[in-house]
Automatic annotation (TrEMBL):
One of its GO terms (cellular component) is mitochondrion. GO terms for biological process: negative regulation of oxidative phosphorylation; respiratory electron transport chain. It comes from Heterocephalus glaber (Naked mole rat). Belongs to the complex I LYR family. Pfam families: Complex1_LYR. InterPro entries: Complex1_LYR_dom, Complex1_LYR_ETFRF1_LYRM5, ETFRF1. This is Electron transfer flavoprotein regulatory factor 1. The lineage of its organism: Eukaryota, Metazoa, Chordata, Craniata, Vertebrata. The gene is Etfrf1. Residues 10-63 form the Complex 1 LYR protein domain. Coiled coil: none annotated.
Amino acid sequence: MKMANSLRGEVLNLYKNLLYLGRDYPKGAEYFKRRLKNVFLKNKDVKDPEKIRELIERGEFVMKELEALYFLRKYRAMKQRYYSDVNKTN
């Protein structure tokens, strides 16, 4: 039972972190929130600790992908701003 509780905590943390990252999702925060909730609800009856760990790992992968997406978007915006400023001064 103890392991199930610790996995539950990990799942809740993952959900909260993904929800936080979803605020800047390109298709909108509400779209992301609905999809996230559906995925978590779809897997709510999974009891096997190994399967739960796999799902947590998949969720952590999605978090890293979202962070990379946002970083790239910021980088492109900064690069575009910088180069448009440089071209205006010449």
